[in-house]
Amino acid sequence: MVAMEPVFVLLTVLLCCCQARRRNVLLIVADDAGFETEVYNNSVVRTPHLRALSERSLIFQKAFTSVSSCSPSRSTILTGLPQHQNGMYGLHQGYHHFSSFDGVRSLPLLLQKANIHTGIIGKKHVGPGPVYPFDFAYTEENNSVLQVGRNITRIKLLVQKFLRSHKEEAESEGGEERPFFLYVAFHDPHRCGHSQPQYGAFCEKFGNGESGMGCIPDWKPEYYTPDQVKVPYFIPDTAAARADLASLYTTVSRLDQGIGLVLKELKEAGFENDTLVIYSSDNGIPFPNGRTNLYGSGVAEPMLVSSPEHKQRWGQSSQSYVSLLDITPTILDWFSIPYPSYSLTGGPLVQLTGRSLLPVLSSEQPWSTVYGSQSLHEATMYYPMRSLYKGPYRLLHNLNHLMPFPIDQDFYVSPTFQDLLNRTQTGQPTGWFKTLKSYYYRERWELFHTTLDPTESHNLASDMAHAALFEEMKAQMVKWQWATSDPWVCAPDAVLESRMDPVCRPLYNGL
Ligand SMILES: *[C@@H]1O[C@H](CO)[C@@H](O)[C@H](O)[C@H]1NC(C)=O
Ligand SMILES: *[C@@H]1O[C@H](CO)[C@@H](O)[C@H](O)[C@H]1NC(C)=O
Ligand SMILES: *[C@@H]1O[C@H](CO)[C@@H](O)[C@H](O)[C@H]1NC(C)=O
Ligand SMILES: *[C@@H]1O[C@H](CO)[C@@H](O)[C@H](O)[C@H]1NC(C)=O
Ligand SMILES: *[C@@H]1O[C@H](CO)[C@@H](O)[C@H](O)[C@H]1NC(C)=O
């Protein structure tokens, strides 16, 4: 027995060393948020909580969504697959009714199978349910989205509830604690004028304590005047747009304070040193040339990744190109869960084309390529586009370029767009960098040098000096479309015949 002792001690040491350290994930996604934060050097808007998070994060300067629409983007965040591959072609709610394919193996599904405790609080906006299962779910599916997505006191209490249930579970299992994945999806700072105009253009009055607005005890609204705001190049510099932006800023203050509350709960529950925190947004801000576009102003996203195990780059900025398609591979990597081998609709094996971001948390990576793919937003808004952003060049393929670019309902009624329409109709100066006509009618191919031409105004697609680059980028984009089983890979001038070996059959339609 005496001789056994050293072995026993050695075994114990080995077990302790080999046991992975406790690792959790908190994923925070804002709704239509952009760069209106202190983190991205907006010197007007006050966002102390996001700034504090950025001081413990790597700050991405080149992060992009692959699709500029809510449900499609959320489906790509939660599957790592572009919208054309996972099936969420457009908005999920109501009559739009888009859904991912039943066979998709989503992140929450894979985590649940790996015995990770999963929770969602806020805007889900993806389906079907069995593809996106969560153990703990307070979403618009069984609550008011204003309460679970914008009432930051309610969100704080729900985070408390999730973390408490997590600890109670561990206690009842005899201290054996499994990891958790908590997804907090704010509905702020999404527009509100279309659905709840009484609360203001961005729901900036909801819960501000004024008569009829209710109260959110934890929110101290920050107010801004239209002359204070910074107008990005893609928004008309008009009184209407400035007032719209001032409302957006106020709503951003609720988002920021909400993030502060969520992080405080995490810390007070003792999880701050073992939880990977990711902050981003689903698509560009809801202004002209923003959301629903694959231009830079529609797809560039704020992104913070805070890893307690990678302090070496905290507070630094990264120029590596990253995509929301990278979130699923990153979280799987963090939990050391392999992606399963399976195929959808009997086709080739599904492969993730995104990558884990963990390496860039240690040292800058030479990543300089991201892809984009959009099909619809609302059910009526069919306007398929594919894009490749590589180094300074952004290539866009507007498959149905002969159609006018579609406009969504909540953006249509926005003060900014109404004013733009009125000014255009009455021949007044619009203060915008485009005309409505050029916005509606696009070239089939657009190629921009985004550093020499940051507003993406000079199309180089038919410029002979860029012919070789154009062909090379086209080929690379099509290769990605094939790799991700894109049903639109042959459009618009051919038809995909996929019974045996998939092949594009020409239409001779003159395109
Ligand atoms: C903000 O500005 C500072 C100083 O010019 C710069 O070093 C930093 O990279 C900027 N950060 C972002 C996220 O743009
Ligand atoms: C919403 O669903 C969750 C389980 O998914 C449940 O625990 C919660 O009580 C439900 N909330 C409401 C208001 O029905
Ligand atoms: C926000 O949630 C808290 C806690 O549930 C509640 O007391 C408050 O009335 C809610 N505020 C609004 C505006 O609904
Ligand atoms: C987390 O790490 C910080 C800094 O090392 C330390 O001060 C704090 O006590 C730690 N928190 C927990 C819950 O271990
Ligand atoms: C645009 O014009 C319509 C009709 O003339 C008017 O009702 C509306 O107030 C105008 N909107 C803006 C933002 O100027």
From TrEMBL:
The Gene Ontology biological process terms listed for this entry are: glycosaminoglycan catabolic process; heparan sulfate proteoglycan catabolic process
Q: Per its UniProt record, what Pfam families does this chain match?
A: Sulfatase
Cofactor(s) needed, names only, are: Ca(2+)
Q: Does this UniProt record's set of keywords contain Electron transport?
A: no
**InterPro entries recorded:** Alkaline_phosphatase_core_sf (IPR017850), Sulfatase_CS (IPR024607), Sulfatase_N (IPR000917)
Q: Which stretch is the leader sequence?
A: 1-20
**Alphabetical keyword list:** Glycoprotein, Hydrolase, Signal
Q: What's the domain of life for this entry?
A: Eukaryota
PROSITE patterns associated with the record: SULFATASE_1
Please report which protein family the annotation says this sequence is part of: Belongs to the sulfatase family.
Protein name from the UniProt record: Sulfatase N-terminal domain-containing protein
Q: Its encoding gene is what? A: SGSH
